[in-house]
Each structure stands twice: as C-alpha cells, then as structure tokens.
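Example record

One chain of 350 residues, shown exactly as stored in the release files.
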Amino acid sequence: MFSTPAVALYALLANGLLATCQFSPAESLAAQFSLTTSTSLPFPTQTLSTNDAQSYLTSNWGLSKGRVQNNPDDLAFIADPFPTKPAPGSTTSSGNGSVLAVTYAADAFASTNSGSQFYSLLNTTDGSKFNSMLLTYEVAFDADFPFVKGGKLPGLRGGPQIDGCSGGDAANGTNCFSTRLMWRKSGQGEVYAYIPSSSSLCKDSNVLCNQDGFGTSIDRGSFSFVPGQWNRVTLLVQLNDASGSANGQVQLYYNNVLALKQQDLVYRTTSDVDIGGLYFSTFFGGDDSSWAPSQTTHSYFRNFQFYGSSASSNLTSTSAATSAISSISMERLFSVFIAVGAVLLAGEFF
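Predicted structure tokens for this chain:
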C-alpha cells in the first residue's frame, strides 16, 4: 500500500507534466504570437512523375532562381504511403491529393548527391518583410529508414546571400541565416541553425557549436522522429532586433507539443537580413561516406503552412540558465514521470 505523501507527489508531478504538455496547434501559436499573414503550399490532386513534379514546383512554389537547386530527379508527387498512420493528435491528411516524395540514393551523401534542395520564396502583398514566421509541415520516413548518423530536413532561411548559411558557409549577421531540422542517430531530432555564435550561446548545455563555419545544433535529442508514420513539426523563428540585440528565439513543436525553446539568439546585425521563406533542404550528411545509407530510401512531405509577421521578437535578453530551463524536452519530462511511477509501483515509498 502506498503512502499518502508518495501518491500526492506522483499526482503533483503528473498534473505538472500534463500542464506542460498541452497541445499547441499551429493556428493557436500563430494567434499567440500575432502572426496574422498566412499561406500554404499547393499540392497536385493527382500523382506526378519526376519531370511533371519539377514543372509543378517551378510554377506553384515560388522557387528562387526558378528551379530546383539540387537533384530535381529525386522528387515526385505520389499517393500517401501511410494513409492510416497520421501524426499523433493531427486532424489533417493528404485527402485525395498527393504527397511530395524524396529519394535518397544508396551510398550518397551531401546536398549535391543525396535528397533534394531548393528555396521557396514567400512575399507579402504590401511589400513588407517577414521578421517572425511559423512553419508547420508533416514528414514521414520509410518504415525501415536507416537514420545512420544524420541528415537535414526543411526549415526557414533569409538574408541577401541566398546561397549562404549552408555547407560550411558561416552566418556573420549581415549575410544570411538558416534554421533547418536534422535527424540524428536513431531518429533523434534537433534544430540545426546557421546563426552567429557567441560564447554565451556555446556555453549553453543544450547547444553544440561548430567552430569550422558549420551549423549550431540546438537541443539534440529533445524529440525523436518515428519512421513508418506521419510526424508533424512546427518551427517558430523570431528574429532579434536589427540592432544586434540578443533577443531572437526559436521554438520547435513535435506533434503539437513543445520540444525545445532557445532564446537569447542573434540572427542578424542589420535589417537587410529578414525571413525569405522555406528552405527545402533534405539529404544524408555530413560531408563524408560515413553518413550515407547503404540502401535507397525515401521521405515524404505534406501540409506546408506558414504564418508570418513583420514584427521581430519583443523579448528582452534573458540568462542562458533561464533559456536552458525552458527548453527541457517532453521526452525528458516523460522519463522522470515514468521513473517515479515505477518506484511507486515497486512499493518503495511507505
């Protein structure tokens, strides 16, 4: 028989966990952050082979330079491969339409040889610039998807240098930024950002900074992708003041639950850097063959939606400790919850 204090402790933890894990659909987040401009990317109602898929994307997705940048032959619109396995908590589907399939060739790595990459530009009707944006979409992986060491997934980018902030071309505050997602070993997720680094940012226990011009890993393992079903990701980027104040932020919601939040970020030091649109970038790598899959495999995408505003972040710069506390992942909280429950079931509290 468990003691009253033990049960009370467990109930307190459970209530706190449930409160923390409240679902936050993209529409609610857009309202919360006053992101009043919205749009979505169209998908064809029928499947399209590679050549027709390229034409459709060029005509309907506002591609920078009017083309798919890398590996257009690895794209096609196909029927939903997982029609009975929606993202947990999701009410959306591909309906009678198609999904965008990406092929990753066996033994291939890096954006020039694996997956595909392009930049989809988003514009406002009044000519204003986006300084805050929420991107949400769904991604699925083959049931036997080999995550290997990791790979890139779509995110946001901006700035006058449209080919920078990727592939080791570092962000300096005036050229560009990018915030993509990554999968890592066993499907662990993170935000992978090309942003100016600082000593305070790199000291944060949730952040892994590269010193060779490559991106910064934010809260690796705060969530994990599940193959063989749809996964919803929602990425919020709010740029810092153009003066260079460290008040930018990024948030990532996995299946509508907050997985990570990092504040005190500097994306830019000039107003020339704003949010340009979707950085559709997905490939294995990494820059050597240890990242490559041994088999040809696929990912699938649908339901791209965007919510934006010309307003930048209105946060005041906070301490790294506060930011670290606020970015505790749901998986870690669940682990604590389960561990306490296991202790109670073992009858170790009396």
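Notes: The helical segments are 4-20, 26-32, 50-60, 199-203, 320-326, 330-345.
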